[in-house]
Design goal:
Structural class: alpha+beta
Bound molecules: cobalamin
Order of helices and strands: HEHEHHEHEEEHHH
Strand content: 5-15%
Distance between the termini: 42 Å
């Protein structure tokens, strides 16, 4: 279940993304996010689209623990994938573009795309986008907290169509952090004080009591936090 009903036209696309390893999808009205951020962070639009003050239809796409297995299968199937500069980001892009090519409803037209990876052509504040969609809450440690997965998920892409947005007001998720007795703030502050890098950012995520059963596999954690190629599912023969 998503906080906002999934438009029927997007159901095959969302099912195909989930089957390919990107299992989180949340539809939203672009205006819920665009009106809350500075202009430079707004969602993308394609050249020639008319102004739509009421907003457009967008789909936020994310991953959870299962993405690593799908990525590992893709690495095993393609020797080229592990030699790209950022194999996981490359895999995400290939999945999204491949699924769009096969399942994007022609009636919606071509979407504009935004990416969460470091160095994406356009910076989008994915944490705030997830909050605007009602899919997650922003914790004191700046990670988004999903009601079921806790902090064990990541946002990967956003697709925007020049179509009428979902109806109704923005959804509001009940704050799961307000009544939290554990709190990620001390671990976050300790990481800041230590000028953390890499695995030094793991303690704030581990401090969250929600979604512990969805914690990533250890090699996935090592790869995502260190970026070191030796933790790739299939070793890069050159490194
Ligand atoms: C740059 C960046 C970082 C920088 C943050 C620097 C900074 N001062 O903002 C560094 C390298 C420190 C970092 C660390 C991590 N990041 Co980071 N990061 C990003 C990135 C690419 C851009 C953030 C940004 O500049 N947003 C634009 C500003 C204008 O948005 P904002 O709403 O004002 O601010 C956001 C962040 O900047 C953050 N933030 C604000 N101030 C600070 C200060 C510090 C010290 C940190 C760590 C974060 C932070 O909180 C806001 C809400 O997301 C996003 C992807 C994206 N495009 O959103 C991922 C992203 C936010 N990071 C993510 C993750 C997972 C991590 C790490 C766990 C590392 C990792 N390898 O996975 C750690 C977690 C640190 C923590 N909070 O405990 C995920 C969060 C997923 C989730 N569940 O919430 C994102 C969304 C990427 C993704 N693919 O999903 N990250």
């Amino acid at each position: 279940m998503t906080p906002v009903a999934l438009p029927p036209a997007l159901q095959p696309l969302v099912a195909a993304l989930a089957a390919a390893g990107l299992e989180l999808a949340a539809p939203l009205n672009t205006a819920w996010y665009d009106q809350a951020v500075e202009p430079a962070l707004r969602l993308p639009a394609r050249a020639g689209w008319p102004a739509r003050p009421e907003g457009r239809l967008a789909l936020l796409v994310g991953s959870a623990r299962g993405a690593w297995d799908a990525f590992a299968a893709a690495c095993a199937a393609s020797s080229q994938l592990t030699t790209t500069p950022d194999p996981f980001d490359t895999w995400v892009e290939e999945v999204v573009l491949g699924v769009l090519a096969a399942h994007s409803p022609a009636s919606l037209g071509a979407p504009a795309l935004g990416w969460a990876r470091v160095g994406a052509p356009r910076l989008i504040a994915f944490g705030r986008l997830a909050v605007a969609s009602g899919a997650a809450w922003l914790a004191p440690c700046h990670l988004t907290i999903h009601p079921e997965l806790g902090p064990w998920h990541a946002w990967r892409a956003v697709l925007v169509w020049d179509q009428s947005p979902p109806p109704g007001p923005p959804p509001r998720l009940e704050d799961p952090c307000g009544a939290c007795a554990t709190g990620c703030a001390p671990a976050f502050q300790a990481a800041l004080d230590a000028q953390a890098e890499g695995l030094g950012w793991l303690p704030p995520r581990d401090a969250c009591p929600l979604g512990r059963g969805h914690r990533y596999a250890s090699d996935a954690i090592l790869y995502h936090y260190t970026g070191e190629r030796r933790w790739l599912p299939q070793r890069d023969p050159s490194g």
